Amino acid sequence: MSWLSRKQQAPNLEDNRIAVSLEHLRALEFKARGFSFLPRQPVRSILTGRHGSRLRGRGLNFEELRHYRPGDDIRTMDWKVTNRTGKPHVRVYTEERERRVHLLIDQRVSMFFGSQRAMKSVVAAEIAALAAWRVLSSGDRLGGVIFDDHDCYTIPPRRSRDSVMEMLSRLAKTNAALAAGQPSQASQLNVAMNNLARELSHDALVIYIGDGFGWNDRSDELLKQMSMHNDVIVINVFDPAEVELPRLDELIVSDGEMQIAVSGNRARLDESFRESFNEHVAHMQDVLRRYGLPLINIDCAEDPMNQLLKALGSGR
Questions:
Q1: 28, 65, 225, 315: least surrounded by Cβ within 10 Å?
Q2: Does domain 6-54+99-312 have CATH number 3.40.50.410?
Q3: Reduced to 3 states, what is the DSSP secondary structure of residue 299?
Q4: Which residues pair with 101 in a beta bridge?
Q5: What's 111-138 look like in SS3?
Q6: How many angstroms separate the CA atoms of 19 and 174, rounded?
Q7: Is the model's pLDDT at 206 over the cut of 80?
């Protein structure tokens, strides 16, 4: 449900707190600086230490097998060929010039919720745009899956400005189509994850941006499958009202057309909200910790760019 009025939700007002415009996402190109998804991270980055060792960076391509030369790294020795020929041989690799980065962007009705700065769906779109522009400036290939409650839109990984604009254009359209009052499909998360898993090969980076609604045991399996040969970062977007209800004697909740007043046992209601949110986040944290993958929590009440800088550190 939205806590914002129907008048505020009117598309012709171009209120980027409710429905984000393509122009707004395009303008974020000039803010996408100072953070990095690369394996070598600044000291303050969440990707350093235990998590940093999981990030593979760009992959290596096998180039040739040749005789050992003085100064070659002993770790590149091919012992099978050396034993078979009686002469030392090494395997030569070259680093891939670019890396594939896949964004998995959640734009379901569960994301159409906001109590302060902006809707979760808008914040997710802003984070996706910042990540997309950062990936492009790093010279890597960008692709991904944008999904709502009914469809998944796949953008193949490419290294071009046109590809970024294609993704942001689709994202803006999907975001603008969101409306309160419709049920959110919990199962669509696994559909989108499965679609992306089929597209992955190895040494790619997957960044999920959403609220994790519908995350279950099947989601755990898909996450494990993707992380076996690729890196995965989960960016959990949440609103403060999901953690703790606003301090009001009576709470008015609206879907944009109808509204209800929530009162009664406030302490019990607060406890129920906290338990539900904490259990959800705890499950994600447990699974990610099990696979050594990072979780970045983004609060909708604050500027997402500042939070990315804090989580990923000041870097390239």
A1: 65
A2: yes
A3: strand
A4: 142, 205
A5: HCCCCCCCCHHHHHHHHHHHHHHHHHHC
A6: 9
A7: yes
pTM: 0.75
If pLDDT is split at 50, 70 and 90, which confidence band does 102 have?
A: very high
How many other CB atoms are there within 10 angstroms of residue 238's CB atom? 20
Confidence of residue 258 (pLDDT cuts 50, 70, 90): low
Q: In sequence order, what are the residues at sequence separation of 6 or more whose Cβ sits closer than 8 angstroms to the Cβ of residue 236?
A: 210, 211, 212, 281, 284, 295, 296, 297, 298
Token couple for 196: 């992306």
Q: How many Å apart are CA 36 and CA 25, to the nearest integer?
A: 19
CATH 3.40.50.410 residue window(s) in the chain? 6-54+99-312
Confidence band of 35 (pLDDT split at 50, 70, 90): confident
112 contacts 256 by C-beta, under 8 angstroms: no
Q: Torsion angle of alpha carbons 221, 226, 228, 229, nearest 10°?
A: 170
Assigned token pair, 209:
């941006």
Distance CA(215)–CA(275), nearest Å, equals 16
